[in-house]
Design brief:
There is one protein chain. Helix 2 (40-54) packs across helix 3 (74-84). This protein has 15 helices and 18 strands. It folds into two domains: 9-211, Rossmann fold (3-Layer(aba) Sandwich), CATH 3.40.50.300; 227-425, Nucleotidyltransferase, domain 5, CATH 3.30.420.240. The strands form four sheets. An eight-stranded mixed beta sheet has the order 3-4-5-2-8-9-1-10. By secondary structure, it is an alpha/beta fold. A hairpin with a 5-residue loop joins strand 17 and strand 18.
């Protein structure tokens, strides 16, 4: 790389980011990630303004949502234009170069719940800042819209979770140059930021690791389960060798929308305290009779002590039909009443119970894709202090698939936690008394 080449002052970038200049034509995508003070946004802004002065280009600076122009990188660009007295006209919603005619526009991709691609077809450069917030659904629509052969896409981000949509999609793409840069790699990092970083390193190592080192959070405040706990759940260690009560729960999450799967999970005890998601079958079949037959066949093969079915929406008629063949089949109503005071509904109750099992290392989950879906699951608090779990539709938009596998496992843990007494009643004729989980679907 010809580092001896003399560059204009505006392109005096940190050494780690010099490939953005010297290898600009070698990659279609550039992913710059790291912590605060690394100079990622400042460097891409300088590079884009320089390109705009050399030739005529159309640039879009976008992010997932943008309520006002001040939410964007507009201020960074305007400040650099002022500092170097560059030949641009600055308007309240765009920037134009007086000589080359280059135009820079600003866009929030998500508007009123929909992805807006208007005006992006002729873009030469797309810069997505705060790319950690971009959802899989947005990414799948926006990036293919940039169709010019020599177009470039820049991502700048400080990763939130290990599997940010952008990182998963591009980190291993041979057409993408990935550069991690932190404050200590940036020769222009202000002294006051360095002091803040070193103070944070001393007083709060966890915050330092994310904010200043740019590493994904082990558990962001709105995520249900920490990634480190899920890693341990892949294979539990030191399971005691003891006589234990054998109990199995089969749970079926039924497809509710196009593209969703029906997923059956069998979770069984492997000690008196530990359980394992031992079996799982997925299928996509619109014929409800076939799904009913599949459930009954799996029930016969797996011989669970507890069978619990998703009985909301499209699942309800299947549940009613299966219950005629298996009378002790239980209904799971996501919006039903919770047994926990801190859970808004049954779905929140189930996921908080799943979290307890994972956090306490009581549950082994060998299936990677199930753990992935759990890792992305978010929670939030309502005004009354109760926890509610992110809607399936919202999570599907973020990760590109419905969390059917996570829901199926969650329901099996819910069944084991609240209905384990059914294992004792399984082989006798006594009437099983079910707990009251009735609900009013209009009581939200």
């Amino acid at each position: 790389m010809p580092l001896e080449m003399e560059l204009p002052e505006i392109l005096d970038l940190p050494d780690k980011l010099l490939p953005c200049i010297y290898q600009i034509n070698d990659y279609d995508y550039w992913l710059l990630h790291g912590g605060r003070g690394g100079g990622k946004s400042q460097s891409i802004a300088r590079l884009i303004l320089w390109i705009c002065e050399q030739r005529t280009v159309r640039v879009c600076c976008g992010r997932e949502t943008q309520n006002t122009i001040e939410d964007s990188v507009y201020r960074i660009l305007v400040d650099i234009i002022g500092e170097y007295e560059l030949d641009f006209d600055v308007y309240n919603n765009r920037i134009e170069h007086r000589r080359t005619g280059s135009t820079i526009i600003f866009r929030g991709f998500k508007e009123q719940g929909r992805v807006n691609i208007k005006g992006l077809e002729g873009i030469d450069i797309l810069w997505i800042d705060e790319a950690e917030a971009i959802t899989k659904a947005t990414l799948d629509i926006i990036v293919p819209t940039i169709r010019k052969n020599d177009a470039i896409v820049y991502f700048t981000m400080n990763r939130n979770v290990r599997k940010d949509a952008v990182f998963v999609e591009f980190a291993k793409d041979p057409d993408c140059k990935v550069i991690k840069i932190n404050y200590y790699d940036n020769k222009h990092c202000p002294d006051n930021l360095i002091k803040k970083a070193l103070k944070c390193k001393k007083t709060n190592p966890a915050d330092y690791d994310h904010i200043w080192e740019g590493n994904p959070l082990d558990q962001a405040s709105d995520y249900l389960v920490s990634s480190s706990k899920l890693d341990k759940a892949a294979k539990l260690e030191n399971i005691p060798k003891e006589q234990y009560r054998k109990i199995k729960c089969m749970a079926v999450d039924l497809s509710g929308n196009g593209g969703d799967l029906c997923v059956a999970t069998l979770t069984e005890s492997i000690s008196n305290l530990h359980f394992k998601a031992s079996q799982r079958e997925d299928w996509n079949e619109p014929d409800t009779d076939i799904t009913k037959g599949k459930i009954i066949s799996l029930y016969s093969r797996w011989q669970p002590d507890i069978l619990i079915l998703d009985a909301d929406g499209m699942g309800y008629p299947i549940y009613v039909s299966v219950k005629k063949a298996i009378p002790k089949c239980l209904a799971f109503h996501g919006q039903g009443k919770s047994f926990r005071q801190n859970a808004f509904n049954q779905r929140a109750d189930g996921y908080l119970t799943l979290k307890d099992f994972i956090d306490n290392e009581w549950l082994e989950i060998p299936q990677d894709d199930t753990r992935d879906q759990i890792e992305f699951t978010k929670k939030e608090y309502r005004a009354n202090g109760t926890v509610i779990i992110q809607k399936k539709e919202e999570l599907k938009e973020e990760i590109g698939e419905s969390p059917d596998k996570a829901d199926s496992l969650m329901m099996s843990i819910y069944g084991l936690n609240y209905y384990s007494y059914m294992a004792d009643a399984k082989d006798n004729e006594d009437e099983v008394v079910f707990m009251d989980t009735s609900y009013d679907p209009f009581d939200n």
